[in-house]
Amino acid sequence: MKPSILKSIGAILAGIAAGVILSTATDKIFESTGIMKTEPFDGNPTWLIMLVVAYRTIFNIAGSCLTARLAPGKPMKHVIILGVIGLVLSVAGTIVMWHIPPHWYPILLDLLALPSAWLGGKIAMKKNINQSDNNGKTNLSLPVV
Q1: How far apart, in whole angstroms, are the C-alpha atoms of residue 35 and residue 32?
Q2: pTM for this model (two decimals)
């Protein structure tokens, strides 16, 4: 197998791992502090479930940004592959967990899978452009999307 294929696989796996680890850790913190209930999940207020959707989406954007940064070439191709994998896993989770309300929660995660991957890739590419425009100087500003 070519080294670039291994780097591509590694970049995509790193993005998946980042999203999963960050989401799971945040879930555990919310559960252990009593902020969020897992049984029954729909016993949580709507604002809290929306917060879960928000941080999962942010973590998916961060994972996609990482994938784009680690990709050996064509970063947007890598993040779209990551997004498709995320969408497939998310839809599978929606099907398996359909008996657990609220149903809008997994559907919303499904709908956000590809846009969050795309946005993460765009942010990473914008950051790369900003860094190359600075003639070797480090750019500490936040990217504008």
Answers
A1: 8
A2: 0.86
